[in-house]
Design goal:
Length: 311
Amino acid sequence: MIFDQFAGIVERHLPNLLSIVNQAKLFSFPGRAHEVLSKDRLTEDRVQFLRDLFCLPFPVVAVEDSASLIILIDETPDTVGLYSRRKFIEVAGANSIGECADEIALPGGVQPREIWKAAGDVFGISIGSAQIIDYFDSKGDGQPVFRASGLVNTMYLAGKKEGIVAEEGCLKAEDLELKADYYRISSNGAVRNYVTAMEEVAFFNQPSKFVFESSPVKERKEKAGRVLRSGDRPLFTILDPAEIRTKLGLPALTESGRKSPVAHERRRHYRTLRADRFKEAKGKTIVVPASWIGPSEAVVGSRRYKVRLDI
């Protein structure tokens, strides 16, 4: 995983990032982001929900997909809302850095990609902050397009063996537009990947899907100056109830006589009461507790699997 390679770089060359990387809860995004997210159509109601109630499942979340690793960090505890500003660390192979890497001016006119080719397994590491600022229906098809802005404060090209190959600061990115199946970047790839990660977490936030945790039965203690690798720390993903039941060896609910399993399995989520029948409670946001039928945890071999009903 990119996370494991990044951990090696942090231990040897970026010890100032040790604390935040160790705090991160690692999520593995199921599949290629553009393929999964293109099927996750955003409705107007969903956009309103994300704007008001979007939240990270943990204060520090590392999301890895097939292209990059993004660590999202709440600047303040219990940050809520898609438009809130969040810090991020983006880690991507130089092939994925794209325009962002090519825009960096290095001494002698050398391009970062040329350095990468000569140096070996080097990653682009961008550190900054960003936020969604608004959205609009650009094509009149009911599919919202998000606009975001951000600032990359520091960017490294680094490898575990190679060390810090290059460093640059202050790369601005503004007017970034995002669609569920389309991304257009106007300034830099780091903020583009930040918004992709936010889309992925928004995908995680659906009440129909559960956070599924896989952790080693025999826990390894964190050592000073070290980062636990993916195999030694809890690894989170998002699955629907049927997939989870298969992994836990549980029968499908339809086999037990239930006609509507979706109504009985529901992830913990926020809900804003909008109907007139709520009278005095109208407009109030409440927490709808999770609902799960049967065992939610099992040990298979050396791993413990658990449905997280608290997030």
